[in-house]
């Protein structure tokens, strides 16, 4: 659940809990007290009316009744009581005090008789709403509300600290600890804090993996360079011998040149790997599939025929267009076909390239009749430095370069063993 939803739920829950507790406090402690308070006030009011009724029995005029009323101590406070006498027609004959708006009123009435005439006597006790001291029960409710709200706020702040603030502080601590090599672990939260923590953990894992990959690349390049370099140094040391025959010198020079070419090839491949993985501007151009097919055919047909490798290109989408960096895509074809040539060991040697229209993409397949790759290694061959050739003389970066180039074009690349015993590399390019 998202944090904003949790906060909204907490506020609603606090509101409901406050009402429940306040209602429970009222029902348990205040309702009876309030009922007794109101009953006492009503009884007092009824006593006043009864007193006036008794005193008016021997009176013969309203003025005499008025004199009785004005001598009652409780009614002297005109702010608390309102009194009126009406005749049978509803005419007001006597009125004392004022009715106040925004007040709580209690009423008591009685029919009184003067000289055989009946009159309605009504006495109203006026309790202003804003004067809570008049009804002490309200003070208890306010005090209870303050205590309940205080308790709820303290509980809410504690929950927020435990559930929100403390995890954020722990995340900050994890970030600081990672500087010193202490790795964070994922959590099971499903809110923004959990998302942030788990993404941070994934980022650290990617950084660690990238660091290990870089160290592996450095170690691999160092190893691959050291072997031919040691050989070159050895032959150079031998050539210091002035009595070395000229024929032997020439042989040593050829070997040293060959070894230096191996070193140059390793360095060039490493440079290509770095350039394809670093962000750089692509020089893309709109090109028809037919033009790319012809270009690949011209570039490899003669070379493969000289190696006695049959080369075929098939396409069902010649008229479609793609937007590509041609130099990088040519490098993709070069690396894949180069790998196929090195792993070609069958009697019938062939490489087949197909272009197929598939929804919004062009799927390119490059199949060979080589020795293929073990099923468990299919996903690994695109990793930097991985090679199924245990006696390798190259750094194993070719297919990793292909992956970077294809993903840079928004496509995907994968490998499959084909039905002719070799390997098929497939990748997609978006149509325009």
Descriptors for this entry?
single chain; 8 helices; five-stranded mixed β-sheet; four-stranded antiparallel β-sheet; Beta-Lactamase; 432 residues; 11 strands; 3 domains
State the helix count. Answer: 8
Q: What CATH first level of the largest domain would be assigned?
A: Alpha Beta
Amino- and carboxy-terminal Cα gap? 41 Å
Radius of gyration: 49 Å
Provide the residue-averaged pLDDT: 83
- In what range is the share of β-strand residues? 15-25%
Structural class from helices and strands?
alpha+beta
Q: How are the strands of the largest sheet arranged?
A: 6-8-9-11-10
How many strands in all? Answer: 11
- What general outline do the C-alpha atoms trace? rod-shaped
CATH topology of the largest domain: Beta-Lactamase
The SSE order reads HHEEEEHHHEHEEHEEHEE
Please identify, by name, the CATH architecture of the largest domain: 2-Layer Sandwich
How helix-rich are the residues, as a percent range? 40-55%
Q: How is this structure best summarized?
A:
The chain is α+β, with helices and mostly antiparallel strands and 432 residues long. It has helices at 3-55, 62-70, 136-178, 192-239, 246-277, 289-306, 326-342, 398-408, and strands at residues 81-86, 92-96, 103-114, 117-128, 285-288, 310-315, 321-324, 350-358, 361-368, 413-417, 423-430.
């Amino acid at each position: 659940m998202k944090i904003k939803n949790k906060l909204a739920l907490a506020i609603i829950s606090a509101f409901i809990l406050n009402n429940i507790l306040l209602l429970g406090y009222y029902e348990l402690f205040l309702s009876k007290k309030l009922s007794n308070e109101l009953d006492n006030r009503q009884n007092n009011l009824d006593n006043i009316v009864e007193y006036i009724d008794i005193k008016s029995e021997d009176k013969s005029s309203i003025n005499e009744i008025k004199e009785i009323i004005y001598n009652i101590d409780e009614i002297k406070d005109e702010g608390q009581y309102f009194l009126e006498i009406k005749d049978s027609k509803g005419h007001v004959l006597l009125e004392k005090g004022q009715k106040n708006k925004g007040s709580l009123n209690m009423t008591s009435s009685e029919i009184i008789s003067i000289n055989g005439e009946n009159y309605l006597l009504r006495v109203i006790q006026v309790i202003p709403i804003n004067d809570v001291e008049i009804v002490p029960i309200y003070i208890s409710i306010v005090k209870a509300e303050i205590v309940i709200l205080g308790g709820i706020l303290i509980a809410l702040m504690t929950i927020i600290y435990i559930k929100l603030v403390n995890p954020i502080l722990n995340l900050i601590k994890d970030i600081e600890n990672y500087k010193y090599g202490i790795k964070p672990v994922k959590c099971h939260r499903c809110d923004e804090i959990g998302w942030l923590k788990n993404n941070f953990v994934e980022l650290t894992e990617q950084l660690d993996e990238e660091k290990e990959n870089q160290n592996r690349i450095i170690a691999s390049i160092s190893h691959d360079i050291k072997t031919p370099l040691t050989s070159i140094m050895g032959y150079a040391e031998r050539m210091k011998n002035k009595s070395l025959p000229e024929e032997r010198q020439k042989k040593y020079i050829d070997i040293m040149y060959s070894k230096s070419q191996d070193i140059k090839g390793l360095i060039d491949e490493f440079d290509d790997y770095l350039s394809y993985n670093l962000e750089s501007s692509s020089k893309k151009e709109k090109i028809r599939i037919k033009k790319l097919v012809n270009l690949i055919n011209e570039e490899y047909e003669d070379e493969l025929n000289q190696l006695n490798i049959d080369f075929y290109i098939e396409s069902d989408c010649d008229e479609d267009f793609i937007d590509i960096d041609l130099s990088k895509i040519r490098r993709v074809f070069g690396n894949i076909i180069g790998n196929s040539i090195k792993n070609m060991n069958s009697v019938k040697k062939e490489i087949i390239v197909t272009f197929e229209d598939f929804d919004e993409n062009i799927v390119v397949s490059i199949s060979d009749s080589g020795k293929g790759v073990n099923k468990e290694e299919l996903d690994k061959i695109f990793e930097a430095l991985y090679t199924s050739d245990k006696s390798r003389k190259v750094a194993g970066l070719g297919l990793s370069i292909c992956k970077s180039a294809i993903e840079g074009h928004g496509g995907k690349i994968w490998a499959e063993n084909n039905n002719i015993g070799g390997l098929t590399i497939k990748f997609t390019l978006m149509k325009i």
